[in-house]
Amino acid sequence: MIAFSNVYKYFGRSEVLTNISLSVQEGTMCVICGPSGAGKSTLLGTVNGLEPIDRGEIWVAGRRVGDPSVKMRDLRTQIGVVYQSFNLFPHLTVERNIRLGLEKGLGLDRAESIRRAHCELERLGLLAWRDALPAHLSGGQQQRVAIARCLAMKPKILLLDEPTSALDVDNAMEVVGAIRSLASHGITILLSTHQISLFCDIADYLVCLEAGQIVEQGCREQVLAEGCPSKLNAWIGRLQAMNGRAHAPAANDPSPVAQVG
Question: What is the C-alpha separation between 36 and 212, in angstroms, rounded?
């Protein structure tokens, strides 16, 4: 569904992505982890062309990003994006936040936009809050509304950029639970995080990014195998030792202790 081939990205003279090659299969969840400043958000931004690349190629759903023959507006309708800031309109209700893009962006009528909004809110356990303003919701609920807004557009790909970094532990676990349910519905998910252990047990594929370069990548079982000398296991082990724990967490340990950055 997504393929990066020898991708480079520069900000001025600074090289922020270096020779990125990565494939994300349809219906899988790929988690990109690494410290702050590693290039995670920039990498996600290249998928929908918001961050144009300088060298290499990116293919999304069989189309090359940046190709003059590819209509980026059409391609972007297949890609939903959720950022660490919720970006909800504070003066609109939860339902209206979701319906706005459906009616103004996709041209759906009122009845269909309501149906889609209610469907996604119910899926994420928020239907009872449809008439509430964002200020009346917790941080975790607001982030789930942002996810519901994306899903209502029926994207093939969901980009999640540090979706739990602005949340406390309880709210973060709410959002992780929502993402866990999405991962079982066949949506292709590319997620960036520095909170490794929150997503280890639901990722299909893990990518470790450091200073704009991929230093480790592989399926979850491969990268997190006990005794495996992977970069990710080394990070987790070092951070767990700093927190007074003798062993790194198992792949299904949801504790938020193991973080990078």
Answer: 11
